[in-house]
Structure formats: C-alpha cells, structure tokens
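Researcher: Let's continue the batch. This sequence belongs to Outer membrane beta-barrel protein, and it's 779 residues. Same format as the previous ones, please.
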Amino acid sequence: MLRSRFLLTAATAALASAIALPAAAQDQAPAGTADETQVQDASTIVVLSGIGYRNRSEDAVPELVYDEQFFQRFEPLTAGDALRRVPSVTFLSDVIESDGARLRGLDPGYTQILINGDRVPGSNADRSFFLDRVPAELIERVEIVRSSTARRTGDAVAGTINIELRDGLSLDGGYMRAGGLYFNDGEIKPSVGVYFGGEMGPGRVLAGFNVQGRYNPKQKTSLRFGDSPENNPDFFADDFDNREDQTDTRDGIDYAGNVSYVIDADTTRFELAGNFVRTDRTETERSFEYNSPTAISGPVRTTPPGNLLTDNDNVNDISQTSFSLESELEQEWALGETKLRAAFSRFTDDQFEYEYEIDFDRTAPRFTGDLTQVDIVDEEMSLQLEHIFKLADDLDLAIGGFAQNKDRDTDIGEIRSRFNLPAAMRTGYNQFSQTPLDFVGTFAPFAAPAGGLNTIEEDRRDLFALIEGESGALSFEAGIRWENTDVTIEDLTVAAAQRVQTNSYDYILPSASAKISVGDGRFTLSAARTMRRPRLDYISPALLEAELGDNDLLGNPQLAPETAWGGDVGYEHRLGRTGVAGINFFYRAVQNLVEVANTGVEGSEGAGTFVLQPRNTGDGKVWGVEFDLSTSLGFLGLPDTGVFGNLGYVDSEITDVFGTRRFNGQSEYVYNVGLIQDFPSLGAALGVNYRKQGAAFDRTVGEEVTTTYGADLEVFVEKRFGDSFTVRLVGSNLLDSSKDEVFNKFTTIEDQQDRSFDEYELETEEAGPVFQLIARYAF
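Model: Same format as before. Here are the structure tokens for Outer membrane beta-barrel protein:
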C-alpha cells in the first residue's frame, strides 16, 4: 500500500507539473503555434479524396501503420473489426464478432494491446484486452509493432498493437455520423456520433461521442456422440447420443467518447486526454436437447414417448465500463528533451447470470437453477519519465523509468437450486409455450466459489536505456530494459494459512532494430527478448474441483512469466507515390512455458483423476512469414483503383503431456484481399474485401477443440455529395460464414491418452449477413 500511495502522489505531482509548465513555456514561444500540418479538416475525413493505403513508418523498430482512411470505407464497428484487414491477425470469436486479437495466431495474452501507448486493463484472466471494446470511429491510426523496443513494456511475445485515438491535433471542424445496422432476423440497431476539433486558448481541443447498437443473432446446432470417427468410422449411426438446438442472441449498446487538449509550442508539448466506453448487453440463450438427430417433440418420458431431453434457459446481463485519463508533457531545454507521462485506467465488469434447466431424461423431471454474480474491478496507474540526450546531430541517448501499480478485485457469487418436479410434468410440458423460468424455486444466499473472492496487486518498477540514430541509409535503435515486479495475492476462499501469497521476479530485456534504405526499398532487422506474465486465474492458490474433465485444478502463486527470444527480418518496397509491398520473416523461441502438470495427488472425483497445477515446464517455438501489399494500379493506367492484400503463414511447436502440437488456437494461415474503385467524376466509390483464416487446434487436459471458419466477404458502395456529405452502404458476412467446432472430451488423463472418449461433439454456429447504411456530414 505504501508503494501505491507513493505512485499516486507522484502521478498527481506529475499531472500538476504538466498543467503548470506549458503556461510558463508560453513566455518563450508565442501562442497558437500548434503544428497545423498535422490537423485534418473535417471534410477530408467525411469526403475521402482518393484511396487510403498503408503508411510507411520511419522508425527503426519494424511496424506497420494504418490510418483511419484505410479502414473507414468498410465501416468497421470496432477496433477488432478494423484489424481483420491487417497482416497475421486472427480471431477465435463467435461469428460476426472480433474480440481477442491473436497476432501471429497466438493466444491474445501474447499480444500487447495499447491505447495511446498505454496498457489498459480488462476483464480477461489472461490479461488480454478485447478490441471490441474500442469503437472504430474513435481511432486515428493503428500501429502493428512487430518487434519490441526498450521504451515500451516487454509484454509482447507476439508483438504490439497500439491504437492511437484522435487528439487535439487531428481534426479541425466537426462532423456528424448517423445510420443503422440491419441484421439477419430483421433487427435494426442505431449508430450515431458527433466529433469536433478546434482552437481553444493556447492549444487545440477535440471531443467526440459515439452511440452504437450491438447485436448478434446466432443459431447453433450440436451433435454429440459416445465415440469418435478415429475409433469407429460408423460413429454417426452407431454412437449418436443427443442433439442440441440453440438460439444465442447478444443484444446491447455501447456509449463511447474521447476528449483531448493539446498545446504544441516551440519547445513544449502538453496533452491532457481521456476516453470512456460503457457497454450494456444481454446475452440470451435457449437450448433444447433431443434424443434424435432430426426430430422435435415433447418430453422423452411421455406416452407415446417424445424426443426432448432437456430445456435450458440462460440469460446474462452485462454492464462493463472502462475509462482512462492520461497527461503527457514534452519539454526541450539545454540538456535535451524530457518526457513525463502519467496515466490512470479503470475497468469494471458487473454481470448477473441465471441458467435454469429441466432434465426430462429421468423418472421424475429435475429442475436445476444456477445464479452467478460477477463484480470485477481492475485499475492501473502508471508514471513514466524519459530524458533524451543529444550525443551528436544524428545520435541520441534516452534513459528513463516506469512505475505501475495494478490492483484487481474479483468478487464472484454463486447459488444453486435443485429439486424434482411433479410427475404431471412428464405429460403437460410444452417447450414452445413454457420455459424453465415458470418453475423457479427458492435460492440460498450467494456464496463465493473457489477462487471467486480475491485481490491481486502487482507493483512494477522498470528502468530503460537506449541509443538511437541515423547514419546515411541506416537508422537504428539498441536498448535494454529491466523490469521488476512484486505480486501479492489474497484469496479469501482458501484456508487462512494460504490466504496471502507473494511472488517477485525481474528480467533483463535487450532489444535492437535497424532499417537500411536501398533505392526504393528498405530492409528491417530486429531482435528482442520479451515476456508474458502468468494468467491471473492461475496464480490464485484456490483448488477448483472437476475443472479439467474430472480432474481438479490447483493454482500456483509462484508461477514465473514466460520469456521469448525473437527476431524479425523484412523488406518493403515503395510502389509509385503511395503504394508499398512488404515481406517479413519472424521467429520466437519461448522458454518457461506455463503448462498444466500432474501433481500425482488423487482428485476429488476419486481413482483415475488427479490434482493438476500450472507450472513453468517447457519450451516452444513459433515462426512464419508475412506478406502485405497496398497500392494503386496507376502503373497500369488505373490511378483510381486501389488493391490491398496480406498473407500470414505461421507455424509453431510445443510439447505437452500428450505429445507435440502447435500453440493452442493458432491458425496455420490467414489471408485478406480487397479492391477499392473510386469514380471521381461521379463522386462515388465501391469496394470489396475477402478474408479467410485456417483451422485452429486447442488441446488441454480433458478437451481438444478444432475450430474452422468459412470465408468472409464485405462490400461497400459510397456516394459523395459536394465537399461535406457522404452516404455509404456496407454489407458484411455476405457469405453467411459459419464457425464449426469439433470437440473431443475425456474424463481422465489416461482416457485422453488412450483415446477413450467421454463425448465427441460437432457444433456449428451461424448469424447471417449484416448491412449498414451510414451518412456523414461535415460542418
């Protein structure tokens, strides 16, 4: 707590200094000296002149930069939707959703997500941040940073995605955006926003607000069997167990906004910014299990017998709020340039879920009711100080420090109710006019499950230094970062002697990058050591019974981060005035992998089951090649035709208790191709985008999952009216892409090794096409 108070005091002092110093700087530089070359007139955002292409970054660290014009015409709803058009980003989301970005196909926890250069907390135990939390309309640009730099925290094994929101220097004037989304079941959702930027006092201000309806009407079908095709080629006829039909509708609305105030003087730059996102959503599932692959009828134990095995009603009300405040001061003076940055982020996740089910496959139908209440609060406060010394005209030395306090409070309560229903239920129930809600009984008070009531505090103290410069065709950066972390876990669901656990670790993370220009091309080379911190649910000391099949899972507070040595080698070539084509090869050697190991202790379900525990037990490697193209066809006499595309082919190898596999959830490939045709004389444009990603395989104790997706097709048509008004019609998921999953389920580790199945399941999910009609008006 002493460290927390110190950091809070330091951050407050930094913010006060940041507010005061620019005023003093105005004595040295005249007011109103903001760099106007950065500011876009609102009409250039509303009425796009030409086609947006991928930008060429001048930094030595390899990165791809995409601004809002590259994404806007396909009207992505979220940052996740926008990133479906950049290289090597995959998702294992539900259809028509884009939440956890998997850079290089790796689990979202391997990718560092930054907003305006700062880490942001989220609800996910793997420390990932869901990109569907950021409305695309707030984005100024997206940076895909392939390698690491000493300036940033090293939590970036796969790489870093930095989302820069619009600031006070990005917009002059205002515009309104309004429209709606039409979904496959006839539902219509609104999408509206207003944005304004202009001068205010000695600086510039920007403010934007967006309201967006969210909706996903999924339909799922599952077929379950007692054995699999690897054991019985005739499994479909011989081993059928049950079929489940499910409607899964996600219905909600997002409220988002960001504000920025910037003073950009001769020797001083100051920014004060904040952003806010609130999501209110209800997820409603209704599921029916039948004892027939095709038939639909009443309860199974009736005369004559029916087909309905279970009726399940599951509703989750979700309210999530995130906001962040940041202040940054850059001051040039006699000894160089000093940068001071303070940031605070807070994420709250409140959920109330009920799941009621009636089981008719019994002599007496049984009602089971589960209530779950979730309250997660995750806060992060950080302070970074950096000073740059000018060693020569083209050579700088930067040194700095970083401090961050993270506090995460988890409060989960559960209740269960179970009782037999009257015998009359066997004949009188109609699943189309009744629901399990009709039979809700009495519940006991909420109680925290194992691991459901805990606090995790992480205090980080980092130091870094780097040298950067240019020499002819060469630009380079080489640095080193020391990261130290103290962790305290307090779990109130375990015995008092184990309730408070501590851990600490520190790592040295060197990095180096170089960029060499050769004619119209340039080579990039980089190497870095990075890390991934343990999952938050793995470091709680709680014992979760029957969590992995029939095996128990015991947390491990002494888990250390995974580390990786990696390198990137790439080449990109300029095509005409705006185009660029690039290819990049990468490799990562990962050590101290966190895998679930067998403690040898018998599990709560008895003989044949065990207590399992995550441990740092192995190594892995990841490699691949990435290609991207973004250019006009002016060299073919088609200057108003733009093409873009990318291909990522990735592979990996890891060894677990069952043998060798790829990293969980890694698709072998992902590619994206598109075309935009502008018609200047008509004030119109149209475009098409096609995307496909390969199958992904996950293997954990008790379950194996193979996930495949159909291809995704997007099309837009645009009409511009004068210099200030644009109307755009966009269709997405036009091929009605499905998500198909194959589940292998096992009861014990021995069963999984012997391929003795508890259940084999085939599941498919669809949601249908989505259409948007959006209008923008500049004022």
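Researcher: Any comment?
Model: The domain at 2-304+313-695+702-778 is CATH 2.40.170.20 (Maltoporin; Chain A).
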